[in-house]
Amino acid sequence: MDDPAPGASPFTQIPIEITISVGKARPLLRDLLRLKRDAVLPLDRRVEDPVELYVGDKLIARGELTELDGDQAGQLAVRLTEVADLQNGL
């Protein structure tokens, strides 16, 4: 792990969880109760649409889904296309 810059806050070393939102679904409750294994739940976005990155309920960035190569082949990742100004906190 990299050493923090001199004078950096120790809080910058705390890991945070980022949630990636790829879309929303709004099924009727009766349809939701009927869902079984292998059911398909359509989302409100297309595959090529941007995803949103959140810390808690704060939107921090947007990006596109991509697949990693090499040792991590097949693993999903996000290529950032827009980043919020986080210098003044979340």
Q: Total number of helical segments?
A: 1
Seen as an oligomer or otherwise, the chain set is: single chain
Shape type: extended
User: What portion of the residues fall into strands of 2 or more residues?
Assistant: 25-35%
**If strands are numbered along the chain, what order do they take across the biggest sheet?**
1-2-3-4
* Rg, Cα atoms, Å: 18 Å
Strands, count? 4
| CA-CA gap between termini | 24 Å
Helix proportion range: under 10%
Structural class: mainly beta
Order of helices and strands: EHEEE
Model regions low in confidence, pLDDT < 50 over at least 5 residues:
none
On the 0 to 100 scale, the average pLDDT is 89
| Sheet with most strands | 4 strands, antiparallel
Sum up the structure in keywords.
single chain, 90 residues, four-stranded antiparallel beta sheet, 6% helix
Please give a structural write-up.
Helices cover 6% and strands 29% of the residues. By secondary structure, it is mostly beta strands. Strands 1-2-3-4 form a four-stranded antiparallel beta sheet, with no helix packed on it. The radius of gyration is 18 Å and the shape is extended.
At a glance:
By secondary structure, the protein is mainly β.
Helix-strand layout with pairing:
Elements: E1 19-21, H1 29-33, E2 51-55, E3 58-67, E4 76-83
Antiparallel strand pairs: 1-2, 2-3, 3-4
